[in-house]
Amino acid sequence: MFPRVILKGTMIKKSQQKKRTSPSNYKERFFVLDTQDLKYSERRPGKKPMLKGCIELSRIKCVEMVCSDSPIPCSYKYPFQIFHDSHYLYIFAPDNDTRQRWVRALKEETKNNNLVTKYHTNFWMDGKWRCCQQTEKLAAGCHIYDPVCYASKKPLPQLPDPEREVQELGQRMVIALQDHKPLGDDDLPLQKDQEYVLINSSRPDWWIIEDDQGNTGFVPSIYVAEKSGKNFERFVWYNKNITRGEAEELLMKEGKEGAFMVRDSRQAGVYTVSVFTKAPGSNGEKNPRVKHYQIRQREEKEPAFYLAEKYLFSTIPELIHYHQHNAAGLITRLRHPISQGGGFSQDIADLSKEEWEVDPDELTLGQEIGSGQFGLVLEGRWREMKVAVKMIREQCMSDEEFKEEARIMMRLSHCKLVQLYGVCTQRSPMCLVFELMKNGCLSNYLRTKKGHLSQDLMLRMCLDVTEGMAYLESSNFIHRDLGARNCLVSENNEVKVSDFGMTRFVLDDQYTSSQCSKFPVKWSAPEVIRYSKYSSKSDVWSFGVLMWEVYSEGRLPYENRSNGEVVESLNAGLRLLKPRLAPDAVYLLMEWCWKERPDDRPSFAALFYELNSLLTCEPK
Ligand code: ADP
User: Quick check: bond before 557 cis, omega within 30?
Assistant: First the structure.
């Protein structure tokens, strides 16, 4: 029997450094987990995939996340570890959700193995374990290993479900750095020094947490610190990759009393606070200079960080927050955080502004990459990121309604949704800033790749969409205009759902009424055409049509028929025919999406499950 594929995806692998002298390096690999092995291969455009490694699942003794505060020298920042035979394999996932999914799946598949009882929570680095300081690589771990802590809670595959995330991430705790009053209904109030469970940290700026009463909500991520003391890269005062000399130069240039930053010390894993002061020196004369204080760590039961011995903190952000308000042994209190990139200062006060507002000075516009319903789409740059900027033509959008909704839309965050970063209302025309998707819209992509789309790729495209849509479904958010034209393709051919909910803000009547020419009748469920009754189940109908588009390589559905004719044939119970490339099992799913009664259609969660089970083992 063939092994069944459980998960696939691109992640970064750190070399296993089997020899002490070999340098470590980081390589992008395509991982496939099936019921027997974990395989990884090298994929290069135009070349055959090359299998680089294969680990029999039966040899795995531990799979767990790695908690580390040291800078991660590759672009994927979410590490996990696999201990097999006598080797540690470190893999870096692009986001926390992906990491969770892999750790959970691997744990599930290995839970009956001969496992370790204790594991190492941090990396093996520079000849020692960073968690327990032991210098023997095969030394027993320092933390109880729980082989079923995620796996037992639910069956695979993981489906986006906020309820579940509460349980899974239960072990990540945060501490409030200060009080916070909610800005909206979906925010949670914070009480300084109180602990909360971290539920979702996939967005850089807003995290979801749970209080001890079981209430969940959003809070600004810079108001909380992870109790493990890790992950403070998001704070503006932290400057990675800066030397002592560069830090001094920057702070002297700033020349403000109390200008400060935190940087990596030369000694790995240690941090230094550099602070500018004009305070008189020992001779009583004014003496502008930069002082450096090493953040020391006392390893007791829990880590305790300090600058001046008397004041101990369980996390570095707490320590900094304290010294922002109290000099307490330092030459001056830490008044002005300085960041190397300049410009972007994510000051706490900034968060009281509308959080979706993009500062026009931070946005650079580039060349045109498309045009749509609302106007031109340009490539751009925002805060060191390449972005797509939708310039909203005047009279095209009901801006006020949109602005009200933007907050909610920005908080919808999932690796299979095109992220809305913010809105720039201070420029005319108003523009929306999105994650840039290098390969443009799915319908065009399908047409240009016609004749070269493998079964595996088509299935994976559909699976990507169900994953994003299952997240929207679980967030009670209806897309209303799902189709291949509203999905975008990333540089590595991942498909993400875009334009969710946007039709509500279109002012063009031709588009909004089902009787009119621009209405997407061919993607719409009967109840939408008849009574504008939108639901996640009407999105499911549209998804069936999207699957049809994928397996027809971008053809238009009901190509030569008018909207009226399509409605008539639907009323007569007719449906789109099976595309030549669609396997029977896939067409059955399409037909399931096109059931007359919304309740008879599957949920996106069910579709994800069904499509996932159709993935077969990759040909080598
Ligand atoms: P509208 O919402 O105004 O109808 P679309 O979302 O259809 O606009 O965008 C029009 C075109 O612009 C798309 O077909 C695509 O080629 C390009 N585009 C839109 N958003 C992005 C993005 N985030 N990344 C890359 N290209 C994009």
Answer: no
The verdict on the CB of residue 445 being under 6 Å from ligand 1 is no
Round to whole Å and give the CA distance between 175 and 222. 11
Q: Which atom of ligand 1 is nearest to the CA of 443?
A: 14
At residue 616, what is the residue type?
T
CA 95 – CA 98 distance, rounded (Å): 5
Amino acid identity, residue 218?
Answer: F
Q: Which domains does the chain have, with CATH numbers?
A: 5-144 (2.30.29.30), 172-226 (2.30.30.40), 238-348 (3.30.505.10), 353-435 (3.30.200.20), 442-617 (1.10.510.10)
State the closest ligand 1 atom to the C-alpha of 371, by its place in the atom list counted from 1: 10
Triad 52, 53, 56: Cα angle to 5°: 160
Q: What is the pLDDT of residues 9-62, one digit of tens each?
A: 889 999 876 555 556 688 889 999 988 999 998 887 777 778 888 999 999 999
Confidence class for position 1, pLDDT limits 50, 70, 90: low
Told to judge if 539 belongs to the known catalytic residues of this protein, a careful annotator would answer: no
Of 368, 369, 377, best ligand 1 pocket probe by most atoms within 8 Å of the beta carbon: 377
For 289-304, what is each residue's pLDDT tens digit? 999 999 988 766 666 8
From the list 481, 508, 509, 584, the catalytic residue is 481
Q: Is 419 in the pocket of ligand 1 (CB under 6 A)?
A: no
The token duo for 44 is 């290069």
Checking DSSP bridges between strand 238-239 and strand 259-264, what pairing results, if any? parallel
Asked if the bond preceding 157 is cis, omega within 30° of 0, the reply is yes
